[in-house]
């Protein structure tokens, strides 16, 4: 199954709020560590290397040279 | 001077050829009597090749250096008849612990696959290993081991090399049809032939210390990321024999190695690591630096490179000596064929093909470990720390923790010597893999499959015995070995590991690797595969 690129979240505003609030009161360093953990947790949940590769390519800045 | 070990002094002897001033042509001269050079000599001898080994020193490795030997090299040494004393003396660990900052993150049990003769790995100081190898070389009538012989220069000719060698009695010349250079990461021989040695992915320094514990200490492998006693770096502790423990402190590229190895700097660090109540003595300390690189070609004319002279990896995963032994395992039988003129030079070029492929695989693995252990950017440091923090409670994160992956053989999956499968097989065996061992019974005695293989070619047949007792090509004969007749698969492990349905036939190389396999014994196909494997 390819990476889902159409709206898939049931409550977009609610989720966004939860995401922002989840890092309230954290230092930049703590927030970076948390984001890293979040990526790892979700990546493991997805499991599919092809989907993950598509997501990595999508997230990487367009202006950056190819990874 | 070590407290637990005294170094042997091997006697220098002037060779007859130097004494008489006659220039002799030797089939094979090995440069360097380290683990790889000595193994190369024993493997040449096993093939019936007389071999001269030159070493500029007259003793074994100073300090423990390489300490961890994995199953495959132990199997190679077993084929050469020298593994038993290594395994007997070596130490096996099963429990590993990973620490991050102040905490134990998790511990694991290696749980090696059962029913192999050789353990998954042993820890043993390099000097003990070399002693065993030197002893075997001294006993061999085909190995001429010469201490205090330093190679000064080398000239290549079409069918030989001329070596200029210095001994305490002066300089003399000798000729070699083939030279195997096993003179380590700083190989002079490599410089003499002008070989490239590139792919420098990173550089780092390690302080390595051998420590004698005064009391019991668990036989476990401990790995620290960013510990309080050595901030921002990694530390590895593991056991060797004689109650000697090996500690590797990563220093980073910026540290002053001379300052770092002073006892007044080393001892407090070790004390902080082991805890205030652990009594120990510092036996040996050294700093070494490494890079990740390999030679551009394993063969330069008449000179073949093996071990660290051909490839240098980071220490994580014990890939140095282990992969070097697999170099010479690959080389010896090919060299014998080419020396005898029964196979063309092309067979020796498959030495480069197969072992450069393996070296690149080792470099990849070692680079991955190093990227985890020493993150190169702030973002990768965050990921590394995130993995370690998650690993404490989340099993999913533990496979991502990379403190070095134990060296396993690289299968030659794309080798030109392989004949591709025509049928489906289950299990891990494939053309290009090394043969998995299995318990068997031979003449009503318990034995191992690998004892029945190697040296020459073998046809391992399951089911009814074929009419032929072997298949010949180019002066080589693949000997038929029938499961159920020549050996008994009492536990069924052999049949399972080889997916040995009746009729299944494996063509196995002298280095115990699978060359080809079929579901029926077909003499014409076997002969074609054998010819292919001999470059005929």
Secondary structure elements and pairings:
The complex is a heterodimer of chains A (67) and B (536).
Chain A: H1 12-21, H2 28-46, H3 49-59
Chain B: H1 16-20, E1 25-31, H2 35-46, E2 51-54, E3 68-70, H3 71-79, H4 83-89, E4 95-100, E5 103-109, E6 121-123, H5 126-139, E7 143-146, E8 150-156, E9 161-167, E10 170-181, H6 188-193, E11 197-198, E12 203-213, E13 220-225, E14 234-239, E15 244-250, H7 257-260, H8 263-274, E16 280-291, E17 293-295, E18 299-300, E19 303-305, E20 311-312, H9 320-340, H10 346-373, H11 378-391, E21 439-442, E22 445-448, E23 458-461, E24 470-473, E25 476-482, H12 493-497, E26 505-508, E27 514-518, H13 523-533
Parallel strand pairs in B: 1-2, 1-10, 2-7, 4-13, 10-19, 23-25
Antiparallel strand pairs in B: 3-6, 4-5, 8-9, 9-10, 11-17, 12-15, 12-16, 13-14, 14-15, 17-20, 18-19, 21-22, 23-26, 24-25, 26-27
Specify the structural class of chain A: mainly alpha
Largest sheet of chain A: none
Mean pLDDT of chain B: 94
Count of helices of chain B?
13
**Based on CA inertia axes, which overall geometry of chain A fits?**
globular
- Largest sheet of chain B at a glance? 8 strands, mixed
- Assembly annotation: heterodimer
């Amino acid at each position: 199954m390819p990476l889902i690129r159409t709206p898939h979240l049931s409550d977009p505003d609610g989720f966004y709020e939860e995401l922002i609030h989840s890092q309230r009161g954290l230092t930049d360093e703590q927030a970076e560590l948390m984001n890293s953990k979040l990526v790892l947790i979700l990546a493991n949940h997805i499991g599919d290397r092809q989907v993950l590769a598509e997501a990595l390519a999508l997230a990487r800045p367009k202006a950056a040279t190819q990874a | 001077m070590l407290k637990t070990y005294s170094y042997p002094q091997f006697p220098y002897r002037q060779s007859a050829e130097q004494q008489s001033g006659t220039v002799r042509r030797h089939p094979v001269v090995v440069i360097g009597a380290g683990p790889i050079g000595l193994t190369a000599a024993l493997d040449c001898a096993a093939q019936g090749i007389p071999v001269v080994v030159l070493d500029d020193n007259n003793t074994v490795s100073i300090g423990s250096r390489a300490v961890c030997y994995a199953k495959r090299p132990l199997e190679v040494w077993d084929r050469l008849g020298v593994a038993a004393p290594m395994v007997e003396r070596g130490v096996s660990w099963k429990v590993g612990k990973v620490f991050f900052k102040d905490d134990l993150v998790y511990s694991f049990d290696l749980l090696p696959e059962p029913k192999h003769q050789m353990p998954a790995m042993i820890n043993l100081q390099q000097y003990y290993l070399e002693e065993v190898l030197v002893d075997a070389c001294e006993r061999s009538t085909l190995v001429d081991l010469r201490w205090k012989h330093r190679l000064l220069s080398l000239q290549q000719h079409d069918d030989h090399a001329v070596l200029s060698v210095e001994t305490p009695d002066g300089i003399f010349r000798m000729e070699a049809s083939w030279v195997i250079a096993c003179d380590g990461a700083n190989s002079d021989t490599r410089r003499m032939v002008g070989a490239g040695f590139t792919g420098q992915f990173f550089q780092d320094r390690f302080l390595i210390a051998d420590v004698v514990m005064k009391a019991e200490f668990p036989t476990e492998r401990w790995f620290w990321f960013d510990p309080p006693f050595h901030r921002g770096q990694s530390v590895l502790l593991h056991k060797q024999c004689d109650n000697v423990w090996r500690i590797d402190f990563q220093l980073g590229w910026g540290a002053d190695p001379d300052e770092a190895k002073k006892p007044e700097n080393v001892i407090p660090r070790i004390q902080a690591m082991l805890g205030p109540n652990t009594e120990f003595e510092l036996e040996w300390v050294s700093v070494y630096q490494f890079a990740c690189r390999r030679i551009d070609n394993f063969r330069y004319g008449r000179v073949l490179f093996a071990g660290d002279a051909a490839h240098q990896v980071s220490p994580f995963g014990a890939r140095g000596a282990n992969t070097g032994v697999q170099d010479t395992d690959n080389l010896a039988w090919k060299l014998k064929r080419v020396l005898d003129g029964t196979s063309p030079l092309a067979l020796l070029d498959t030495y480069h093909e197969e072992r450069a492929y393996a070296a690149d695989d080792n470099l990849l693995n070692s680079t991955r470990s190093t990227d985890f252990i020493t993150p190169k950017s702030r973002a990768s440091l965050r990921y590394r720390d995130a993995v370690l923090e998650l690993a404490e409670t989340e099993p999913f994160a533990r496979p991502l923790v990379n403190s070095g992956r134990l060296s396993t053989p690289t299968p030659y999956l794309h080798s030109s010597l392989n004949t591709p499968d025509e049928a489906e097989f289950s299990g891990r065996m494939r053309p290009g893999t090394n043969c998995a061992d299995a318990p068997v019974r031979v003449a009503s005695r318990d034995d191992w499959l690998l004892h029945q293989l190697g040296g020459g070619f073998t046809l391992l047949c399951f089911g009814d015995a074929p009419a032929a007792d072997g298949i010949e090509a180019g002066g080589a004969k693949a000997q038929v070995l029938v499961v159920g007749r020549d050996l008994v698969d009492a536990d069924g492990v052999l049949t399972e590991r080889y997916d040995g349905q009746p009729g299944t036939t494996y063509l196995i190389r002298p280095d115990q690797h699978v060359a080809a396999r079929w579901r029926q014994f077909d003499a014409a196909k076997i002969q074609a595969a054998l010819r292919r494997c001999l470059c005929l």
